[in-house]
User: Fold this.
Amino acid sequence: MEKETQIYGLRAIIEAINANETIDKVFLQKGLKGDLFGELEQTIRTSGTNVSYVPIEKLNKLTRNNHQGAVAQISPIAFYDFEDLVNNVLEIKKAPLFLLLDQLSDVRNFGAIIRTAECTGVDGIIIQKKGGAPINGDTIKTSAGAVFKIPICKVDHIKDALFYLQGSGVKVIAATEKTENTVYDISFKEPCAIIMGSEGRGINPSVLKLVDAKAKLPLYGEIESLNVSVACGAFLYEAVRQRL
Assistant:
């Protein structure tokens, strides 16, 4: 069952963060001051919660209730512990397949990717705590409920996940046009993780330097790129094809 995905009010959000609720993002009113507002800001900083400062009109659109200048989006799912997931999967599977999303920003792309990942047997999706699309109603709808069927983990930085996967014997493959290799030149038969970048920027250059292999999809039309969810599907199904 999908749980309530929004809370509002300064004290309520402070208490939710202190209670370790799975908060995706807090929206705070620009220019607001006061002791309780300052306490909330400090709590957000200490916890590392994702935050955006927005005009009051944005908050009014998010809720009709008395938000007091603060609205939080709570994730409708519980996130898995990344290291526990990797270790558990490696114990039971010879060639697991993981998917890393480097700050994907569109919730519908996110949902579509989750749906394809579930259909192709991905063992876990790893996202960064800050800067990416939240899991909200649109994500759930676009995923066709797959968001409740596949483990999703949050990490402080994608690099942390990359290093841990490599140290665990998992090959990390970047989906990027910055290579001569196509997806059909790369082996997906061993334990591997595929990294997909954000819609505008792609994979962060500092992350791209650390991967084990890079691959691109051949494009024969005039448009220079594919939608990230479509590209992700092509990569995942090439992995499936090789493993059949």
